[in-house]
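Section 5.1 Outputs to date
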Amino acid sequence: MADAERRRKPPGALARLLAHPSFRWGFLLFALVVISAVFASWLAPFDPMRNNFRTRFIAPNETFWLGTDRFGRDVLSRTLHGGQVSLRIGLGVALFTGLVGGLIGALAGFVRRLDDPLMRFMDALMAFPAVLLAIALAAALGPSEMNVILALSIAYVPRTARVMRAGVMVVREFPFVEGARSIGASPGRVLFRHILPNAMAPLVVQQTYVFALAILAEAVLSFLGVGPPPPTPTLGGIIAEGRDYIQESPWISLVPGVAIAMTVLGLNLMGDGLRDALDPRLRTAIR
């Protein structure tokens, strides 16, 4: 009987994640990107900053596996180091928006008198397209990696806040929350010990998408010249450098474009797997 009960026991969250094909493929893609970026200094065959006009516009060959650009710089080396910048910015935006947006959403969902003013302010920010708002903020703050993180975080905080607010508003009506209040638990204890741990799943899923959106938006900012300044290699900057030579040397823009696509695809697949594994309504689909 005990063995039969153990066999019928539903799988845990980790087991559901590992059984989900989208999460597995997304994790493999994203892990490949992360490993390539973390070990870029060892994997890059050449100095990404070194100019060599004797090797300009060389097509992919046995020496320059992914070709060279107009300054003779190795595209593979620049793409690997550009991935470091994109991942740092994406991670910084995901953490910042998760902390600030999560706190704003939790306060709005838990403290009723703060709900209207906080959400109206978030709505005002959401009235502007996120990328356009980020471009305006980055241009005003100046081109630097930290300013890009700040600009993108301000643009994406409202989305995170609304997700967190919705989760808190659902959990705050559960019987165990009312029970905690009835035995005299303070509002802070109710929020941080009882509500937030049970409302974090949607936020975790949301941040994987914010991570991907931040990488795409950083590429847009760098392409337009308001991202991290040269000579720092960025994926969007490499694409911008190759746009004038797209017919003669398509690899200059194609290689960083593929790197961005792989990163975003991996994060989106991971987000889909996390959503399915953490949402009780969708668990039956992956058992």
